[in-house]
Amino acid sequence: MLLHFQDSAKLKTRNVAFETSYYARDSITLSQLRDLSSKRRAIEESINGSSHLTPAIAREMAGGVTSPIAQDLLKLEGYLPLLENLIECVQAEINNKPQVRQWTVDLRFRWTSPLSGSSVNPLSGPKYYRVDDLRYELCMVLNLFGALLRERALEILPVDLIKAAQLFRQAAGVYQHMAEKVLPDLQPVLAISADRPPEATVTMATIMSIVCLAEAQAVTARKAEEKGTSGSLLAKLHYGVVQLLDEALNILRERDSESTDVSEKFRRFLNLSKVLHESRSQRYIAADFRTEEKLGMAVGVLRHSMNRVQMVRPPYEDVWKPVYRQEIDALGQMLRKCEQENEFIWRDKVPRVDELPILEGKKLVMASPYQAFGLDRDFVFVT
């Protein structure tokens, strides 16, 4: 039932050498800048697919971790503290010396945007968005961190639902931190550029945080299904997913002037996920009506759900086609059984759409707050 949207993790970047951009006054600062460059290069090679490490060497360097996604998360956990620390030091120096605004030759932070609708040119390849500001680098690295936490959650989902839900909540916290703490300060810098990626907007960070919460809620519903929870509660849990996705879609629609370049695939993912979880909720409601021998209501709920699902039929080549087909087959099978029982046994009146019960949701998940790593090293620059 949980759709996989993996595009957000397909970020690419180009090389940055901090030691050639910042003028270090002492050898310790120079060493720390080189360490930053080295850790960033490891991330860059991994996400760009240019690493020459064998799987065995990569596993050994990661302390025995076998998952490439988990290995990349470890690399980010090594890079983020250094980057956050550098930003704090640079900002403190600027605050102390307002006349000092730029000590760098050229930072050239360049990232692609997989969430953009025009991110790939068939002739020139992926488009790189360049912003020469450390906070832009932090924004895009946190985007990658949140996206990889989602990927790791999807990776372990078949074997550990509890851990998967925790990772989705952690990812939600990363995006929430971006929206509240990182991106507001970056907006004046981005405002002077007519071209910025969706990943660098408060709108998209907020939407991605809500999407991660919806995914955590969906995993919670699956865990409740395994425990044999009542149908009425399961219906509410799945509709809680719908409510979260509705919130994300409403934000996207309300602020479309800021986010017109958001990919159509991402929009389709939100709509299809919403309708599939709404269908699952209605199947549980119909099952309860069937148990109560209210077959007319069951048929009405299922017919309405079938109409809703058929309206968002994905294209033939869509990667979500099997999940869609699985849901519509289950829905159709249940509808046929209820219609047959009602026609030959109960003969209940099938209600109109406006007579169907109003769906209720129950949201149980919250974002896990992102904690900055709190590294405290001094950088001494030539100003």
From TrEMBL:
<dbReference type="InterPro" id="IPR004328">
    <property type="entry name" value="BRO1_dom"/>
</dbReference>
<dbReference type="Pfam" id="PF03097">
    <property type="entry name" value="BRO1"/>
</dbReference>
<feature type="domain" description="BRO1">
    <location>
        <begin position="1"/>
        <end position="383"/>
    </location>
</feature>
<comment type="similarity">
    <text>Belongs to the BROX family.</text>
</comment>
<dbReference type="InterPro" id="IPR038499">
    <property type="entry name" value="BRO1_sf"/>
</dbReference>
<protein>
    <recommendedName>
        <fullName>BRO1 domain-containing protein</fullName>
    </recommendedName>
</protein>
<dbReference type="InterPro" id="IPR038898">
    <property type="entry name" value="BROX"/>
</dbReference>
